[in-house]
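Write out this protein's structure.
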Amino acid sequence: MSELRYTVLFEPAEEGGYVVTCPALPGLVTEGDTYVEARQRAVEAIEGYLESLQKDGLPFPPDKKLSLEPVREEIRIAVPEPA
């Protein structure tokens, strides 16, 4: 049995808990009420994702190492008033 490692991002959820994404696995999103729960759900989600790829005969993607810390920025968008 081989071991894979994937970088995951934990983002505090507005309603509490954490939302977890994995940059190397597009569409993988999970959440948990605590960091520990969110981490466990991330492990389960990644396992399920990889099982699905394996069943479809697809290769496991390599991890996407983040060379920089994520940047947080507020962007303002002007929206015209409805007529």
